[in-house]
Amino acid sequence: MDGDRLSRVFAALADPTRRDIVARLSAGDATVGELAEPYQVSLQAVSKHIRVLEDAGLVTRGRDAQRRPCHLEAEVFDLMTGWIERYRRQAEERFSRLDAVLKDLDNEEGAA
Amino acid sequence: MDGDRLSRVFAALADPTRRDIVARLSAGDATVGELAEPYQVSLQAVSKHIRVLEDAGLVTRGRDAQRRPCHLEAEVFDLMTGWIERYRRQAEERFSRLDAVLKDLDNEEGAA
DNA sequence: CTCGTACTCAACTGAAAGGTTGAATACGGA
DNA sequence: TCCGTATTCAACCTTTCAGTTGAGTACGAG
Description:
The structure is a homodimer.
Chain A (H helix, E strand, L loop, with lengths): L2 H11 L2 H10 L6 H5 L6 H13 L3 E3 L8 E3 L3 H36 L1
Antiparallel strand pairs in A: 1-2
Helix pairs in contact in A: 1-4
The first copy, chain A, binds a DNA duplex through helix 4.
């Protein structure tokens, strides 16, 4: 099951700092130091955040001398949208079925 | 800012039990007792889970005598997909721009 | 082979999450 | 009005999480 994976992805994105990191990585790769710079928290804290994103599969990292450039893995988003769309669609289907039933009731009433 | 809202939505869906509840509600409304039935945990625990989903805006509830039927609010999914798609698109754009640059380099090399 | 840079690891702290049980509360039915 | 059903509230426990500081590691430059 990749339910565990999905849990990690959602949990990772529940934190505003981590969402911001993802947002910034969507504009291009960056090192830990670069990513940490705008935040008030310690470099170590940001390093931990990146680890969480990495464990969720949202981020991969390379090596460039002592730097560890972070790269956003956009494919993981598919896992989320897949999950979301499945249930959204189901809910909407049900909604339109209800809609149809109500319309039918209206028609019958009008006909009677 | 609705960043806080987004945090609550993602956090709510980080829990497998809550995701399962959402999945089941996508098939139709249900009471707390009905939702709790398949799980090992206490009814109170499920009641708490539902409250988290409610606070995130994923679920609303009516009243039917002593029952509190839960209803899935599919619109909140749009908030998530909106966020996700924004950064996915940005990342993909960047990717195709890089692709174009590499292709250009190839062409120049071929021409030289 | 040092030295500074870029980071990670380890140990600790406070707050929040998810679970429990037991006591309220809200309502319909007899 | 009293009872049972459905659900929530309250207090508590344990684990996880986000943050801290201080020490350790990995690498390139000089």
